[in-house]
């Protein structure tokens, strides 16, 4: 009996081992089948995303003038949009954080995006012809949102729209709007800074954006670069990102967004006040300038510390790096999402954007079609006892004015 029991045990062990070996072979085979080589992965990704990549390339090519203007604005001294290069990176991160939601969403391409793109075509033509960066900026996002609806549909675009609209933070405002906004913030910052100095016991006198005091080594002039608008735009840019990525209720997100304006105004006014303190306490205008040059970064850091402090206080500091799939994503596999922009939807988006490229190369902008030269003899060199001298015009001015010919003639009283 002992021998039979031993045989049974051996038999059982053999059976178990056989089953495990079979399972292991099965798992190994499954893993081998589920791990495609690199060429297969590249081909699969190309088949799935090639229409999206093509639309992006054509959109950037058609709006090349606007994109170049944005990039040049980012690199200017004291630019309000020096944070511009970070915006596309942050937008891509938000898309990456939504990857599980996007992959498990029911993608149903919609024709709603086509009318939006078609309505933007004449605006693009006029913007290209007139070299209007503002109009081209508007059409860039109209085409981008329209193509997104064509590829993903209304429901599938839920997790893509905000990261795409976030790109607006890298686009400079039109000069007229920027000047209006800057001057308002500039005046408020000057007023609050003057009041802070008054409360500190220093007698001041405000004249527009100028703060004077007999204790200052020189008047404290709040220029456009010190208006606080640059700080406001940067703070709004990163607040929008933080609010989007944080797990919190809607009212908490609204509160964090709402405090950005008063916070930036207060901190910038405090910065101007500290520049005044530096001049008063040291009696040196050079110290004021030195503190001015690096205090902007300090102000931004203080804003972030206060913002994160408020977020922690209201318990809205659970920052996530990857959003989980939606609960309603269980039926996504049945939707057959193999190619984004499948059918005629993706082809329609490509056709419209390709039309823009044709327009770009087929219609000459107004500045490029300007021809001819001014007749210098029509402009008198002498007016009474005033004699004139022609002054060469700098290249940067010629490039900015975009005209065929310019004349700069300065008249001086000869008596």
Task: Please tell me how large the radius of gyration is.
Answer: 31 Å
Main sheet: strand order: 1-2-3
Distance between the termini: 137 Å
Classify the beta-strand content into a percent band. under 5%
Please state the overall shape, judged from the principal axes of the Cα atoms: flat
Which structural class should the secondary elements be placed in?
mainly alpha
Can you give the helix content as a percent range?
55-70%
How would you explain this protein's 3D organization?
- The termini are far apart.
- Strand 2 and strand 3 (220-221) form a beta hairpin.
- The chain has helices at 2-34, 38-62, 64-74, 86-97, 99-103, 113-130, 133-156, 161-165, 175-199, 229-245, 250-258, 260-282, 285-313, 344-362, 366-369, 395-401; strands at residues 205-207, 210-212, 220-221, 382-383, 386-390, 409-413.
- It is mainly alpha-helical and 415 residues long.
- The strands form two sheets. It has a three-stranded antiparallel sheet with strand order 1-2-3, with helices on one face. Strands 4-5-6 form a three-stranded antiparallel sheet, with no helix packed on it.
- It is 64% helix and 5% strand.
Task: Name the descriptors.
415 residues; mainly alpha; 3-stranded antiparallel beta sheet; 16 helices; 6 strands; disordered N terminus
Topology, pairings included?
Elements (H helix, E strand, L loop, with lengths): L1 H33 L3 H25 L1 H11 L11 H12 L1 H5 L9 H18 L2 H24 L4 H5 L9 H25 L5 E3 L2 E3 L7 E2 L7 H17 L4 H9 L1 H23 L2 H29 L30 H19 L3 H4 L12 E2 L2 E5 L4 H7 L7 E5 L2
